[in-house]
Amino acid sequence: MRIRIVDAFTDRPFQGNPAAVLLLDAAFPPDAWLQQVACEMNLSETAFAHPLPPGGDADWALRWFTPAAEVDMCGHATLATAHVLATCGLATGLIRFSARCGILTAETAEDGTITMDFPTSSLTPVPAPASVDHALGGPPILSVHDTADHIGDLVVELADEKTVRELEPDHAALRAFARRGVIVTAPAEDPSLGYDFVSRGFFPAFGIDEDPVTGSAHTALAPFWAERLGRTDLTGLQGGARRGLVRVTLAGDRTLLTGRAVTVVDGELLAAPPTAAPGQ
């Protein structure tokens, strides 16, 4: 089977967030095999997709696995999958995906950008957990918000971009945190550089100490910063050593995520899934 590694939310190799993409001919193999492939790829996400019969609500079924677990929603691996489908000629125009979080869509524009339609996350103000404050090293925290269950992140607002960039969290301490992960964010120091806010995402409980660019988290960052900056069209810069740009458009209960992607590896997976026993 052909497998690809795509750098998402970037237009150049070795930036953005890498995702593996495996297109299947038919139904998903056993979950254990999918998890083994994701563990072998050892990227923040591996996406698996197979075509659906025509006439339904979606064109492709889509699932995402970290090296440690399946997740409900993933932005950068959806972007990577749409990029593969478009560049291989397997889909044109609007692509509809059926996923655990519902129907998601992705559409490639003439300039090569891909825009995805995701559900907007709710934001619930909560007290700053002492364990998270300790794990982050005790930076001044301005606010903390919990997100919707299909994301499951804690959004932590810090004072400025410099604090976000210099953060060195205790990943072992964060691993014990009950939610999916922690997103730290702050306004851009200089918006003339092409972005309005910055963020970094830490998900050690899911086998990812730091995720370079988390598309799903931007469904929470979009309403968070739209309220503070007074605009519904914004651009976020996420990452530490690797970075990527996510353009967001807040449209009520939906958030549009726009970015670019580039394929960096195109190879063959030799370990085939197990064959079902006769009669199964």
TrEMBL record:
This is PhzF family phenazine biosynthesis protein. InterPro entries: Phenazine_PhzF-like (IPR003719). The keyword Isomerase applies. Keywords: Isomerase. It comes from the Bacteria. Belongs to the PhzF family. Coiled coil: none annotated. NCBIfam families: PhzF_family (TIGR00654). It comes from Streptomyces avidinii.
